[in-house]
C-alpha cells in the first residue's frame, strides 16, 4: 500500500461515551446512531439505509477524537484513524488511490474509518495553481468514496474549521455534531473524574472554566504534578549519620541539632578510611580523612552514629554533595528504626 503507515493510528483504552460528558443534543444523536447499527438487519429488510456518515466539528479539545473511539467501543468495531494533513502526500497523484484502498480496508474489516483534520481537504485555494487540478481530482475522488460507502460501514470525520470544507462534501454527511466548550457543570464533573484517581493530599486545585476538556486536563495535571513534587520535598526521612566528618557536614548544611536521644548503631558494618589522595578539607581549613561504612563479614561489627529527621528536599541535596564513593541504602538500626545510610559503593 502506497500511503505511509505513520498516518494511521489506533487509540488504546478509549473512554466510554458515558465518560465523555457530552451535551444532551450530541449524546441523543449518537445514541440514535448506535441503535440504527444495532438493528441494521431489521432496517435493511425495510430498505432503509442507516446514517453512516458523521461530521464532528467545533472547538478543539472538546472530545471529537475521543467520541469516534467511544463509538467504536460501543459498536465493538475497530477504528482506523488517519490524520488527513499527514495522509495527503507530496505526490498528490497517489493520494486518490490511497484513499480508495483505505475505504476498501475499512469495509473489508467492518471497521470505522475516522478521518481527523478533515478540513485539510478544504484548503484547495491555498495550493499553487499547478496543483489545483490535482487537488480538485482528489476532492472528487473523496466525494466518490463517500457516495459509495457501504451501508454497513461507518465514516466519521472531524474538523475544527467546518467553514473551509467544500459544501459538496458537507452535503454528504447525514449527521453533523457541533462540539462547543463545555458548561461549568460538565467541567466540574470532568475535574472530579480526573481527580478521583489521585490521593486527596494533592487534589486541591484551582478550577478554570470557559475552556476545553483538553485544556482542563492539562491545567489539572500541571497542578497535580506541582503538589506531588512539593509533597515529596516536604516528606520526612530518617537518616543515620556516622563519624565526625559526615555529621559535621550535615550540621553545616542544614543547622540540624542531633540530640543524644537519637543515638543509635547499625550492625554488620565497619568504618574504613578513604586513601589520602581523597582527603577532604573541612570548613575550618583542616584536612580530614573521611571514613566510609563498609559491609563487614563479622556479624558483631557495628558502627555508632545518630538518627535524625530531614526533608526529602534536604535528602536530595545531601545526595548531590556526597562524594562519589558513597551511595544511599535503606537499613534498620539496632533500635529497630528504618533509616537511610550512606555506605561504600563497593558493597554488593
List keywords for this structure.
348 residues; alpha/beta; Rossmann fold; Hypothetical upf0131 protein ytfp; five-stranded mixed sheet; 11 helices; elongated; P-loop_NTPase; ATP hydrolysis activity
How many strand segments? 15
In helices, the fraction of residues equals: 25-40%
Write down the overall geometry: elongated
Number of helical runs?
11
> What is the CATH class designation of the largest domain?
Alpha Beta
- Please list the strands of the largest sheet in the order they lie side by side: 1-3-4-5-2-6
Uncertain spans, ≥5 residues at pLDDT below 50? 1-9, 255-260, 276-287
Question: How far is the N terminus from the C terminus?
Answer: 55 Å
- The CATH topology label of the largest domain is Rossmann fold
Strand content: 15-25%
The CATH architecture classification of the largest domain is 3-Layer(aba) Sandwich
Radius of gyration over C-alpha positions, nearest whole angstrom:
33 Å
Question: What is the chain-wise order of helices and strands?
Answer: EHHEHEHHEHEHEHHEHEEEEEEHEE
GO molecular function: ATP binding; ATP hydrolysis activity
Keywords: ATP-binding, Nucleotide-binding
Pfam family, one: AAA
Family: Belongs to the AAA ATPase family.
Amino acid at each position: 500500500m502506497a500511503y505511509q503507515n505513520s498516518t494511521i493510528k489506533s487509540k488504546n483504552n478509549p473512554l466510554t461515551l458515558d465518560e465523555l460528558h457530552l451535551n444532551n443534543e450530541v449524546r441523543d444523536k449518537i445514541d440514535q446512531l448506535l441503535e440504527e447499527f444495532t438493528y441494521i438487519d431489521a432496517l435493511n429488510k425495510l430498505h432503509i439505509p442507516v446514517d453512516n456518515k458523521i461530521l464532528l466539528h467545533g472547538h478543539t479539545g472538546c472530545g471529537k477524537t475521543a467520541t469516534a473511539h467511544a463509538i467504536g467501543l460501543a459498536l465493538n468495531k475497530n477504528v482506523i484513524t488517519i490524520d488527513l494533513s499527514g495522509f495527503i502526500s507530496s505526490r498528490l497523484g497517489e493520494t486518490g488511490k490511497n484513499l480508495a484502498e483505505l475505504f476498501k480496508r475499512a469495509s473489508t474489516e467492518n471497521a470505522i474509518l475516522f478521518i481527523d483534520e478533515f478540513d485539510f481537504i478544504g484548503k484547495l485555494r491555498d495550493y499553487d495553481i499547478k496543483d489545483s487540478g490535482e487537488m480538485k481530482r482528489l476532492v472528487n475522488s473523496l466525494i466518490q468514496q463517500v457516495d459509495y460507502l457501504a451501508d454497513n460501514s461507518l465514516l466519521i470525520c472531524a474538523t475544527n474549521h467546518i467553514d473551509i470544507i467544500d459544501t459538496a462534501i458537507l452535503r454528504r454527511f447525514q449527521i453533523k455534531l457541533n462540539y462547543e466548550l463545555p458548561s461549568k457543570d460538565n467541567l466540574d464533573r470532568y475535574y472530579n473524574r480526573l481527580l478521583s484517581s489521585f490521593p486527596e493530599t494533592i487534589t486541591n486545585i484551582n478550577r478554570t472554566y470557559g475552556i476545553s476538556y483538553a485544556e482542563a486536563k492539562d491545567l489539572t495535571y500541571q497542578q497535580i504534578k506541582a503538589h506531588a513534587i512539593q509533597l515529596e520535598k516536604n516528606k520526612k526521612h530518617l537518616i543515620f549519620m556516622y563519624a565526625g566528618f559526615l555529621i559535621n557536614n550535615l550540621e553545616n548544611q542544614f543547622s540540624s541539632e542531633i540530640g543524644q536521644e537519637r543515638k543509635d548503631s547499625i550492625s554488620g558494618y565497619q568504618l574504613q578510611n578513604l586513601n589520602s589522595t581523597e582527603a577532604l578539607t573541612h570548613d575550618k581549613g583542616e584536612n580530614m580523612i573521611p571514613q566510609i561504612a563498609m559491609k563487614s563479614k563479622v556479624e558483631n561489627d557495628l558502627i555508632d552514629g545518630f538518627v535524625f529527621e530531614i526533608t526529602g528536599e534536604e535528602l536530595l541535596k545531601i545526595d548531590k554533595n556526597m562524594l562519589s564513593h558513597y551511595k544511599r541504602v535503606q537499613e534498620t538500626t539496632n533500635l529497630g528504626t528504618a533509616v537511610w545510610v550512606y555506605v561504600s559503593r563497593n558493597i554488593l
